[in-house]
Amino acid sequence: MKLSEIISLDLLQEIQDRFASATGFAAITVDFQGKPVLKYSNFSRFCTKLREDEFFYNYCCQSDAHSALEAVRKGSLCIHRCHAGLIDFSVPIIVEGEYVASVMCGQVKADDDTGLKTRLLEQSDDLFTVHPELRELHGEIPVLPVRRIKDTANLLSSIVDFVVDQFYARRQSARLLEEGRRQEELRRRIDELEMTMTHSRAAPHFLFNALSAAGRQAHMEGARKAEDIIYAIADMLRYSMRSAEPLVTIGQEMQNVRNYMFVQRARFGELISFEADVDAGISEYLAPAMSVQTLVENAVRHGLEKKDNLGMLKVRGWRSDGRICFEISDDGAGMTKDRMKFINDADRLAASPQELSGSGILSLYRKLKYFYGDDCKLRFAENPDGGVIVRMEFSMRKNVHDGGMEQAG
């Protein structure tokens, strides 16, 4: 299987570039021989100079190939020291048991490498003899805490898992569609598949922006704030790639929303404000995964980000007459009356789904309809302060049994 069949090489290059920029690590994607299949990202001057020598370039490729194969053997990421004594780690891209490529990162030193002694090749002791100018460049290599190295490696592993999951989701959807578009059973199966997979679709544009924010914050404030941002991103990735029931507690959903807005505020600073007023008494009730998140992200992308001075986003949640109610409001750019009328017309929406491509609203409509039938509501309205107010309601549920839901007492 070719890497381009799993993900666009241009998209993977952008992910690699932004990951390297945000974390400060070097990155490269290699084949089974350790040969690069993408351009270098954030390579150190030491490694760039070293690879200009054909002999040592081949040694570097051997080191990358050994690291990738060791990761495949372990079935997980491999952290090791390369032939030049630097810390590297590799995450294999494996589809249906077939090794496709490996994403390599590193080119750093560890402040305490006693737990990172894995060496796959003998060290090249004659580096500085052959190229004495490398000694000064070697001194430029940053020394990082072992914890930061491991956390960055785990974040990269989560991103690679996400890429592979997206490939499986796209292929499975295509297979279902190919079996017969006109069958109602097919429609039901696609809906079920979407319920379990929609919440694993962290939008690539947000991933890129978030990692960029982490890089900028690291540059301005040092590693601690950047670590907080990266942890928030990692939590969001783990949440979005959950393979369990497509219903989650409102407490879990709101924690993911708070992580998302934490990263957005790292991007925009005081230009964006966020308030969440959700009744603590509803935190254990169930909601479709990524339901509030979809509306919040939509408000940021299509409302606030289209204003030069951004603005305020508010989330309210409460219970009323056996129903869960949410209101998401922003004072962003707003939308035209025609588009708002179209979104609020479920029949027109179902007939022309392409009109909402990329917004996630159609998917949210389908999820609410799937779980609650007619006992749900999703309405968009103009915000008197500018922007949009979205009201979402659905019946209160606490338990799920055999695919059915018991109403909470």
Structural overview:
It is a single chain. The protein has 409 residues and is α+β, with helices and mostly antiparallel strands. The chain has 2 domains: 143 residues, Beta-Lactamase (2-Layer Sandwich), CATH 3.30.450; 169 residues, Heat Shock Protein 90. It contains 15 helices and 14 strands. Strands 1, 2, 3, 4 and 5 form a 5-stranded mixed β-sheet that branches. It has a 5-stranded mixed β-sheet with strand order 7-9-10-12-11. A hairpin with a 5-residue loop joins β11 and β12. α7 runs parallel beside α10, α9 packs across α11 and α11 packs parallel to α12. The longest helix is centred in the middle third of the chain and has 34 residues. The chain is elongated, with a radius of gyration of 24 Å. The C terminus is likely disordered.
Q: Major sheet: size, sense and barrel closure?
A: 5 strands, mixed
- How many domains? The number is 2
CATH class of the largest domain reads Alpha Beta
Rounded radius of gyration (Å):
24 Å
Poorly predicted runs of 5 or more residues? 401-409
CATH homologous superfamily of the largest domain - what is it?
A: Histidine kinase-like ATPase, C-terminal domain
Query: How many β-strand stretches?
Result: 14
CATH fold-level label of the largest domain: Heat Shock Protein 90
Q: What's the tally of helices?
A: 15
